[in-house]
Amino acid sequence: MEQKFESYLEKNGEIGFVIKVTQPLIYANGLPRATLGEVVMFENGVEGIIFGLEENLIEILNLSSTAIKVGMRVARSGEKLKMPVGEKFLGKIINPLGRQFGASSIPSEPAIFKEINSKPLGITARKPVSRAMNTGVSIVDLLAPLGKGQRQVVLGDRKSGKTQFLIRALLSQVEDGAIGIYCVIGKSKSVIRQTYQALFETRHHEQAGSKIIIIASSAEDPASLIYTAPFAAMAMAEYFRDLGQDVVIVLDDMTTHAKVYREISLLGRRFPGRNLYPGDIFSVHASLLERAGSFSVNGKEVAVTCLPVGETAHGDFVNYIVTNLMSMTDGHLFFDYDLFLEGRRPALNPFLSVTRVGHQVQTPLKRDIGMKAISLLSFASKMRFFAKFGAELNESVRETLKKEEQVIAIFEQDADVIIQSDLQLILFGFFWGDLWKDKTQDEIKEIISKFRENYDSDQIFKTQVKSAIERSNSVKDLVSQLSIFEKNYV
Amino acid sequence: MDDAIVKTLFNKIITKNDAIELAENFDAVEKKIFLRHGDWKELLKTQIGADFYYILSEAADEKELLSIFWKFHKTIPAIDIARIDVAFEPTYEFLSKISEWISREAGHKVILDVNISKKLIGGLQISLKGLFADFTLEKKIKDFLR
């Protein structure tokens, strides 16, 4: 490291001296040609990035927790912050600088280095979102669908089931051929371990795990490293995008990222804005999310689908950071803690979730199902509200409420269950055609489980499902195709 | 006349320690002058050292002396400081030559902040306003081995 420092000194012929330390910010003088975002090295080998420039004063963000002392020498590297990227990281968990995190070992083969803060691709390289992205979660795929290349915020209180959904969506996409990047921003080590286990150690997803990279920064890491994590994850995503591979990137979570950035900015005595966040918090997040989207790479459509997470408190999804995220993305999925407490899994609130581009990439059948399901749920919700007054309910209202129960049973999914898109449609067809009219919620769940098992193991059944869906353009068409399944599933 | 005297005074300052000492002495003069009922000459003579006083005393009268005093006093903190790292305890003559050479190269007066680092073996490293130059034996050996 000392040699590296000396070589930087020799290469650039510039030196600075630390004059003030307020971890993680270090102030130094000298380095007359320093530029923003440039990597610098202290004489003890610790790296930092230039975070601010004033007359005769440089603000450096220390990327390590190693102490820096006043009077230490600092040298410019002449380079922006880069991280190693490449296939060798697939199936691994790394820190935002591409180094080993925990016990995960990284092969020593050389890697390509990519700038962490690269410029987003321009409008000419972009394509409209045109392919559906299946998350494997019925309620999302049917009611608030996503497209490949969409940026969709996932909102919800703590422990409302966001992470389970994100893991399922990531695994589902990885099985579909995409590369998955899960960026953990400032979480506890136990949460990181759980995420690792869910992605890499689940029996069914062993193969999928080899196409996922976890970029993790724990709450114990220095604020600078936590701040860098989503940018590093995006750089990794861009590497695979440039190779022509679809990528799904989860940023869990951006609220913590904003808090860490606020901490750094306040230490740097930047002027505080709303809720004490720095004035450029929107710009920082927007420029990050701008790097996702649907692109044309060598004539091929390639998507970087971004799922940033926003944490709400007591269901308040109009807080500053969350509304910022909403306004820079293509919609949001709201996981309602009240629904979670009612026992709904996943606890997605379809009425408070928005998808701005997802519907345009759906097939006519899926769109029809989505519309019918949401109008039924909406009507049933009004009826339930009405029923609270103790009014006597007529037959049609009772039937609507029963239907609501059944549709909720169809959307009910355990945390590790992925339901294929075709199955989601067929199941809804059974419900809509009143073929399960007299079934209870438990009976419906049992049938769904049988359906899933057969779909995975029986090739003939799978083909029958696929052909029934291909022949249908509306729910009505689909219902008419279901007679072949009636014998076994009704 | 007073510019020439100020320049001569500047040339007498070689290191950062010289500048600090002189600035402290000037501060003391400023604080004690009321005790001497404005007798500047006597106070300067006892406070700032004979060599500096000898140069200052070349002033034509007390008015010019005061003008030089204030001018010099205010300029001391603004002098550029070059940090030099050397492997040995440098002599006054060595420092004087180095200061003169750096001032000539920089185009203005530069004083030295001297640090001793034995690992440099010989020669010196200079850092001035963020620019760095390495003239050490250590570097020469490293380059040779490379």
How would you characterize this protein structure?
The complex is a heterodimer of chains A (490) and B (146). In chain A, strands 8, 12, 13, 14, 15, 16, 17, 18 and 19 form a nine-stranded mixed β-sheet that branches. In chain A, strands 1-2-5-4-3-6 form a six-stranded antiparallel barrel. Chain A has 490 residues and is of the alpha/beta class. Chain A starts with a helix and ends with a helix. In chain A, 40% of the residues lie in helices and 21% in strands. With 146 residues, chain B is of the alpha+beta class. Chain B has a four-stranded mixed β-sheet with strand order 2-1-3-4. In chain B, a hairpin with a 2-residue loop joins strand 3 and strand 4. Chain B is elongated and about 70 Å long. The model of chain B has no long low-confidence stretch (mean pLDDT 84). The chains are: A alpha/beta (490), B alpha+beta (146). Chains A and B meet through loops of A and strand 4 of B.
Please count the beta strands of chain A (DSSP E, at least 2 residues each).
Answer: 19
* Greatest interface by residues involved: A-B, 12 and 9 residues
Give the helix/strand class of chain B. Answer: alpha+beta
Helix content range of chain A: 40-55%
Structural class of chain A: alpha/beta
Number of helices of chain B: 7
What does the overall shape of chain B look like?
Answer: elongated
Mean pLDDT of chain B: 84
Order of the strands making up the biggest sheet of chain B: 2-1-3-4
Question: Which segments of chain B are poorly predicted (pLDDT under 50) over 5 or more consecutive residues?
Answer: none
Q: Tell me the fraction of residues in β-strands of chain A, as a range.
A: 15-25%
Number of discrete helical segments of chain A: 17
Radius of gyration of chain A: 25 Å
Overall geometry of chain A comes to elongated
Radius of gyration of chain B equals 19 Å
Q: What kind of oligomer do you see?
A: heterodimer
